[in-house]
Amino acid sequence: MKFSSKYLEDAVEAFAGLPGIGRKSALRLALHLLKQDDLITEHFAKAITTMRSAIKECQKCHNLSDEAVCGICKDPRRNEKLICVVETVRDVMAIEETGQFHGKYHVL
């Protein structure tokens, strides 16, 4: 696809670099953002920038956290003798969604 704007091309390339986003979807997202109010696009840009700079890896389990130690590791109700070793943070999220596991995690 050829674009009349280098900035649009750059935005499409950036979106297309995300998993599961092809060039058509990337173009749709970029064009959608162009139609939005400045407050919405500024909020979107700030959310991404803040996410990248503020989210840390938990020092104990390697889950994502806003603090040095995640809420799961801090929770005194969690069974410390029960550790679930998972491959990714998405695995932690999936297990937590079930509400059935009450131990702690170790993300590889």
Automatic annotation (TrEMBL):
Gene3D superfamilies associated with the record: 3.30.60.80, 3.40.1360.10, RecR Domain 1 (1.10.8.420)
One annotated GO biological process: DNA repair
One GO MF term attached to the UniProt entry: metal ion binding
Matching SUPFAM superfamilies: Recombination protein RecR
InterPro entries noted in UniProt: DNA_Rcmb_RecR (IPR000093), Rcmb_RecR (IPR023627), Rcmb_RecR_Znf (IPR015967), TOPRIM_dom (IPR006171)
HAMAP family associated with the record: RecR
Protein name, as recorded: Uncharacterized protein
